Amino acid sequence: MADNPHHSDKHRPAPSDHLSEIDRAAYGDDSIHRIHQQLGREKEEPTEGFSQIPIVLLFLFGALVFWGGIYIANHSAEFRYDIYDPDWKPGFGGDQTAAAWDPIKKGDRLFKNNCAACHQAEGQGVPGVFPPLAGSPYVVGSEDRLVKILLRGLSGPIDVLGTEYNGNMPSYGENGLGWDDRDIHAITTYVRQAFGNEAPPITEETVARVRGEIASKSTAWSADELLSAHPLE
Amino acid sequence: MKNLPLLFLGIFFCLAFSWTGLILSSEIQYGGLKPIALEEGETPQPQAIVGEAQQGRLIYIDQGCLYCHSQQVRRKGYGADWERGWGDRQTVPRDYILQPRVLLGTSRTGPDLMTIGQRQPSTEWHYLHLYNPDITSKGSIMPPFRYLFETREIGDAPSPDALIFPDDYAYERPPAGYEIVPTERARQLVAYLLSLKVDYELPESRFAE
Amino acid sequence: MSPLLSFFSSIDPKARPGIPVKVQLSEIDESMRTPSILFLSAAVCWLVIGSFFALVASIKLHSPDFLANVEWLTFGRARSAHLNAMAFGWANNAIFAVSLWIMARLCKTAVRHGGLLIIAGIFWNIGVTIGVIGILTGGLTSVEWLEMPPQVAPILAFSYILIGVWGVIAFRFRQLGHVYVSQWYILAALFWFPWLYIIAQTMIFIEPARGTVQAITNWWFAHNVLGLWFTPVGLGAIYYFLPKVLGRPIYSYYLSVLGFWSLALFYNWAGVHHLIGGPIPVWLISAGIVASVMMVIPVIVTAINHHFTAVGNARATWASPTLRFIVFGAMSYTLASLFGSGMALRDVNVVTHFTQFTVGHAHHGVYAFFTMVMYGSIYFMMPRMLNREWPSAALIKTHFWCCAIGIGIMLVGLHVGGWIQGMMMNELTPDGNPKYTFLEVVHALVPWLFSRSVSGVLLTIGHIAFFVHFFWMLAGPKISRYREGPTLLLDSIRGEGKAG
Predict the structure, then answer these.
(1) Domains observed in chain C
(2) Domain that holds residue B182
(3) Is the Cβ pair B124, A178 closer than 8 Å?
(4) Do B24 and B75 reside in the same domain of the chain?
(5) Looking at the structure, do residues B96 and B11 belong to the same domain, yes or no?
(6) Number of domains in chain B
């Protein structure tokens, strides 16, 4: 098409003539007509007008840039790499007021985040897989036995409220997740008083004492081991 | 526009500006961070994961877990990460320096996993959950990863890591004489998940209470 | 003459001065014909393949047992295959065709040596195919927007360079002193994309940066694929087709200049807003937030410029397939960008971050804006390229309505569902515990995820209509011979000489 004699022979430089020229060419030959029908109806290539930018817009953008500068100045923590709080100011020490310690509140948080996935939100467990805590003698019975389970974990077959389980409870003591006495105190107290359980709290001192007594043991308990030391009530 | 050198320079410098400002300056500012001990004599933190967990990270990557699970904890007071128990403190750049590929994630269709090894240390739970998330988390929309497990004939004795299903399990169980056990890949993946912990403090990020 | 010199003279199109503009355009269309058809055919195929993966991923998110035992279609892989098929298969092929064609036309230079372009195009598509198969079979990298195994990066980079360079060559040998706004955008995009891609590949895979510098590089790249690659090409196309089809000049050159430079300056800092609250220094995040908010400037400017160009031509706009899609896209650009600026604010982001809101926003930009503009461009290009009309106005209408309603449902579903998800995640009881468990949040989200699958079905129908129509037009001169005028979407306007 580039060498089509229609165009190279008869071109005229004046832009106003282009359309009519193509149209005229098109009338001569049906195939040429088809080739050019889109181009023939096509508008000129785009151009730009020169309307002014509304002045209001420029003020608006100026204000926006100003805000940006202020924001960076206030929320950049002096461009330090080790600050992650946008409201940090030099000499800012953070909120130092500690909330009052409440073992039930703390235990509630620990339980939801660490235990509920297996033992379920209401402590009912999953029959055959994860034993229940609600009403379980292992929870509301001997304090030492419960603390020992937390501190070393429990492995192998166990009968809880008439159902057989065979699993592994992870350790939260030194050979496991390493919780401190206060957290063990909170979680044990919580499970003994939640889900309808009504057993007395386990103190931090009890936890510390039991931790000392079993210091030499490094593996998980079996149910038999526990029951020979602390028979079910 | 007729000033073409300006156009070319502008195109070049705009991108060069952001690359310098965002990437190069952060590389210079904290690209060289090292593990650090809070007190003398303690183990410098963080520590690199090793062994099976390292293999598990590759499974985590090629299965695309990142597209639903983030690995970052926001500071207490911004979002509910702390309240949900996803971490005791905000995670900071130093926590990630030993990871060959940083898997921060930008979606929480599933929960954050930065501290899943602390929150959920039970291997069995993870196997059951991977095999069929509905068993452990009723109504979960996580895909079941049954293809990371195999059904095989029980040998002399059931294997210790064979799945134990709940008594009221409604789905198909293995036929009698067969058991479902995790494959190598499932074991590696769970080892990786169990290795995800933020149980140490850093000078720039202390546990919030 | 040295070989190098003769090469340069061979790519100089040596347009004969004085040849009528429209004849030159016709020559240019002719020279771009084979490469453009190749790119567009590949693009349309990827569009349908990508829709398939999208549907699978979307259904899996509310019915996790769907195809659960097929490892290569697990959610993480299916959604990544979807993203890469769409971004590198559909979007990039469409960009190659549309941007090079607009560039060649505005520069009045025909493309010589189109064979090189075709070979590069074939290699690009081989690269994407290997990449997508790689994702499905275990090579997924879990780096967002760079999921394809890094081994395909060299194929993509080299074939890109052989493709992108034709835009630069066309620009180098342009026939006019004045450079039109679409040319700025496309020229800039052609430079920006390889730079972004090569740096991201290097700093994430070849010589990985340490720690979260990787994450910053990742989001600098991923957001800029949208901001400095899809967006400029999309805007360049709007700036070309809007005045072209309406036959009116762009409202204001000054607004074009302000819009272009403010976009170039601010957009590429904005990507950090994907890491708000994350483990990077707070000053980087604040810089990203400010840049994101500053994006209001180019967006408003562009919106005004487009609005005053098109205003008063509602009927012509509605009748022309090109403009119907392009105006939809231009309006979505304004809306999506303003949403994006809002989402970058810390108080909003604390809700929307990590939720489906972000997913909705991504589709707002990439689909409702960019993809719709590409559809419009293709509706204009194909008749010029093939000297043939679109065979069926009904199929165009099907395509438009399925896509417009489909993306509308998706945007409402994901934005509303995502917002609910974010609010439920953060809400605390008076004693400081989360009000809803994680599973309760998931359960509340599921109906919204389901609405996304509904929208996905609609979109797929639209894509199939487009696919059928495209190849119908390509295959059959006999079929479209009897159509004389342009294929318009309003009957009454036909014959008034409006360009399709």
Answers:
(1) 19-179 (1.20.120), 227-490 (1.20.210.10)
(2) 52-195
(3) no
(4) no
(5) no
(6) 2
B 53-72 near C (Cβ less than 8 A): 60-68, 70, 72
Q: Are residues B10 and B61 in the same domain?
A: no
Q: Is residue B47 part of a domain?
A: no
In a domain, residue B131? The reply is: yes
**CA B177 → CA A165, B131, B149, B156, B173, distances in Å?**
20, 19, 17, 11, 11
Residues of B whose CB is below 8 A from A113: 84-86, 119
Q: What phi and psi values does residue C176 have, to the nearest 5 degrees?
A: -115, 150
User: Is B206 among the domain residues?
Assistant: no
Mean pLDDT, rounded, for C160-179: 86
Helix B52-63 crosses helix B184-195 at what angle (to 10 degrees)? 100
C212-219 average pLDDT score: 96
Q: Clarify whether residues B96 and B163 are in a common domain.
A: yes
Q: Say yes or no: B137 contacts chain A, CB-CB below 8 A.
A: yes
Q: Are C76 and B65 inside 8 Å of each other by CB?
A: yes
C-chain residues near B70 (CB < 8 A): 354
Cβ distance C478 to C299 under 8 Å? no
Binned at pLDDT 50, 70 and 90, residue A8 comes out as: very low
Report the residue of chain C nearest A88, measured CA to CA. Answer: C282
Average pLDDT, 10 consecutive residues per value, chain B (209 residues):
82 94 93 88 89 95 96 93 92 95 95 94 93 91 95 87 84 86 96 94 86
CA–CA distance, C228 with C250 (Å, rounded to integer): 22
pTM: 0.88
| Amino acid at position A167, single letter | G
Residues B117, B26 within the same domain: no
Give the per-residue pLDDT at A13.
Answer: 41
The ipTM (two decimal places) reads 0.94
Whether A82 and B204 lie within 8 Å, measured CB to CB: yes
Task: CATH 1.10.760.10 in chain A: give the residue spans.
Answer: 103-229
Structure tokens at C466: 């487009």
pLDDT at C491: 63
Nearest CA in chain B to C66: B143
Q: What is the CATH number of domain A103-229?
A: 1.10.760.10
Residue A3's pLDDT band, with cuts at 50, 70 and 90, is very low
Chains that touch B (3 or more CB pairs under 8 A): A, C
d(CA A207, CA A185): 7
For residues A168 and A155, the answer to whether their CB atoms sit within 8 Å is: yes
Cβ A81–C281 below 8 Å, yes or no? Answer: yes
pLDDT of residue C249: 92
